[in-house]
Structures are given as structure tokens and as C-alpha cells.
Amino acid sequence: QVDLVESGGGLVQTGGSLRLSCTPSGSFFTLYFMGWYRQAPGKQRELVATVSNSGQTNYADSAKGRFTISRDSAANTVYLQMNSLKPDDTAVYYCMTDVRDRSYRRQTYWGQGTQVTISS
After folding, report:
1. N or C, which end of the chain has less CB nearby within 10 Å?
2. How far apart are CA 21 and CA 23, in angstroms?
3. Tell me: the pLDDT tens digits for 82-115?
4. Under a CB-based contact definition with an 8 Å cutoff, are residues 84 and 103 in contact?
């Protein structure tokens, strides 16, 4: 019942920056978390950063000091500002949201993913 629209991926050189955006479509009663995960070829999906409805943030060690997650509460849009990008950041980045949906079920929804490629 909730779709996530992602944008902002692309190809940049090492040291460059990208800003990812994710906006829910549909409706829900309560939003608990939004965040970003990534998956590189041949690897498991891993946490990048999350932000809760209370403003608590959590970052992977690899993201600390370089990435910033933020949220526009009016639009429920989550952003991931990525600076000082490295080739190891290359992955498909997935937006997620943890909500109480209109069926009154606590569920996690995932976006389709946006490709981020960092060239050497």
C-alpha cells in the first residue's frame, strides 16, 4: 500500500558527491523509520543509515563522517547526502520505510533501488 520513489543515483568520480531522495506514495497511519540500505553485486544488503520518527539516526561505520541522512517531515521525504565518495560505495541503494499502514499492519516497504557508481 506504500510505494517509495527514489532519485539521485548516478555516476560520479572518486571524491564526488550525490544526494539521494526518497518520497513515499500512498498512505499510512504512522511512520516509524526511514532509511537507506545498499547492495553491491555478490554481497548482502547492508545498512547505510536510518532515521526514526523521533529524529534518532544510525549510520554504518563506513558512512560516518561522510554521509548524512535527513528527513523533511512535512513531505516524509528522506535524503542521503553522500560526500567523499569512494569506489567501495558503488552499489544499488534502496530506500526503506517502516510504517503502520492502512491495513493497520506494521510493515516494511522497499523502493526499487537506484544505482550509485563511483569511478576510480
Report:
1. C
2. 7
3. 999 999 999 999 999 999 988 889 999 999 999 9
4. no
